[in-house]
From TrEMBL:
Family: Belongs to the strictosidine synthase family.
Keyword tRNA processing included in the entry's annotation: no
Keywords attached to this entry: Glycoprotein, Signal, Vacuole
Signal peptide limits: 1-23
Gene3D superfamilies: TolB, C-terminal domain
Keyword Signal included in the entry's annotation: yes
Annotated Strictosidine synthase conserved region domain residues: 147-229
Stated name of the protein: Strictosidine synthase conserved region domain-containing protein
Major subcellular site: other
Amino acid sequence: MGTKTITAPFVLLYCLLSAVVSAISFSKIQLPGNASGPEALAFELGTDQHFFTGIADGRILKYQGPSVGFIDFGFAAPNRSKSVCDGTSLANMNPTCGRPVGMALHHKTKRLYVCDAFFGFGVLGPEGGPVTILSTTADGEPYRFCNGVDVHQPTENVYFTDASAVYDIRQFKTAASVNDSTGRLLKYDVENKRVTVLLRNLSYPGGVAVDEEEKFVLVSEFFGNRTRKIQLRGNKPQESDIVNSWPMPDNIKKARPGVDDFWIAAARIDRRTRSSLLPIGERINASGHLVKTVNLKQWYGNILVSEVQEFDRKLYIASQFVDFVGVYEH
Ligand SMILES: *[C@@H]1O[C@H](CO)[C@@H](O)[C@H](O)[C@H]1NC(C)=O
Ligand SMILES: *[C@@H]1O[C@H](CO)[C@@H](O)[C@H](O)[C@H]1NC(C)=O
Ligand SMILES: *[C@@H]1O[C@H](CO)[C@@H](O)[C@H](O)[C@H]1NC(C)=O
Ligand SMILES: *[C@@H]1O[C@H](CO)[C@@H](O)[C@H](O)[C@H]1NC(C)=O
Ligand SMILES: *[C@@H]1O[C@H](CO)[C@@H](O)[C@H](O)[C@H]1NC(C)=O
Ligand SMILES: *[C@@H]1O[C@H](CO)[C@@H](O)[C@H](O)[C@H]1NC(C)=O
């Protein structure tokens, strides 16, 4: 009788814990061949997990579900040679092969807006192929690292970032060592096809997301360890609240169409080592209130993730440092 009264609570606790543990699962969608480094994802609504991603060898791949897998969809480097580029992960090949990073799909027209770190800001139609470059410079200053993209679905206006006006993607370490703060927030107006600079002097802006009503954008500053909310007023954006202060925030994605909640890929400091960083996904609402944190250490260790995106109740995770797309279910 004594043992029963002692074990019962433990049995209950065990059941509760295993229910929590079994509710979380993680799987990998392996990239083909020697492909690696998915930086961002763009999903097609109304499909069974079809998405686009840009990889280290300069290709934009499209995933068409488990039975088809990945197909080559597009590229931004005008002279990209498949035999020279496919499968490479060498940073020195980037200027030849391209490096697509940020991307966002305009659902109505199926136009995919893309930032290529070397070839600038462009767009791809539903048939794919070479990216049509729309802009490589704003206010006379070339983009050095076109990085994060989001499209406002009702208007098709596109918001994107140039992480630095000085350092390209290969010069990340130098940019970090000088705490580069020359990044810009830009807007592409689909009506007049013009790009305007909304904000300058940003601290390595990696990600951007616009709200449903186009009243504000969230912009992450990777070196500044913060995500800011910037009120849009015509072409004169207002300086802004800091809505999140986790280190090294990267891409920001709306959690669901019609809902102004956002997922930010970021990091937290490992308490044991005090210096290393562990990858996390953070869901915030439009006022920056933290809704949920997902700790990705179990699957990524100290590897940083660049994007956490929700689709059909699962989280899809991109990282420049791995050869798969993570799928987290909870
Ligand atoms: C991957 O790279 C290795 C080494 O360059 C090469 O031998 C191999 O054929 C590549 N595999 C594919 C599937 O491209
Ligand atoms: C692509 O090739 C053409 C013709 O050889 C050359 O003029 C051009 O500079 C090349 N562009 C790039 C980005 O390498
Ligand atoms: C912002 O950057 C510009 C150059 O793009 C520079 O002239 C200006 O001093 C900077 N402003 C601040 C507040 O740092
Ligand atoms: C951002 O966070 C990293 C990691 O904790 C730290 O090394 C760096 O100094 C921070 N940068 C700023 C501007 O506070
Ligand atoms: C780096 O730059 C950011 C933004 O300009 C600034 O807030 C921060 O204090 C700087 N950090 C260091 C360590 O200089
Ligand atoms: C965000 O969540 C907080 C706490 O629940 C709430 O007070 C706030 O109104 C929410 N903001 C928005 C814009 O929904």
